[in-house]
Design goal:
Helices cover 43% and strands 13% of the residues. The protein has a 5-stranded mixed sheet with strand order 2-3-1-4-5, with helices on one face.
Length: 150
């Protein structure tokens, strides 16, 4: 991990002013921001670790917790909510053996609720690693997970 961060820092002319870009690079590599990487970034840029951690936890795009390879976002915005997206969220959680939102033990899936995916005419909508599935029903979830799990 240390080598990856050091190599990433070399890509930027002024790493101290490119922290958000560097955090994106780290997250793209590890699917979250490991503490060890944040410590190396802090030491290399001389930015206090608390400041880097504040950035990493402020933006929803970043995660300091390990995430699954497949990110499932269930829209619970108004259009999706009135079309029972909460039931879809519960069904996904049940199929993945999760207690609500979270990441499976095998780090295959991370389940999250989001406020809007911008596809209201397709409600209810779910996004899996950026791919949109509209007009989704609970009875399609098991097959969808099997398809996406490969």
């Amino acid at each position: 991990m240390k080598k990856f961060v050091k190599d990433t820092l070399k890509k930027y002319r002024n790493p101290k002013n490119s922290v958000i870009h560097i955090l994106h690079d780290i997250q793209n590599e590890y699917n979250y921001l490991p503490e060890e990487c944040l410590e190396v970034l802090s030491q290399s840029t001389r930015i206090p670790l608390s400041n880097i951690f504040s950035i990493a936890t402020f933006y929803k795009a970043f995660s300091v917790e390990p995430k699954g390879k497949k990110l499932i976002n269930v829209c619970v915005g108004t259009a999706c909510y009135v079309r029972n997206s909460e039931n879809l969220l519960k069904r996904f959680a049940s199929e993945l053996k999760l207690d609500g939102e979270g990441t499976t033990d095998d780090l295959k899936f991370t389940l999250s609720r989001v406020r809007c995916l911008g596809c209201c005419s397709l409600a209810p909508v779910v996004s899996i690693n950026g791919k949109i599935y509209g007009n989704l029903t609970a009875d399609k979830i098991k097959a969808l997970l099997e398809k996406e799990g490969n």
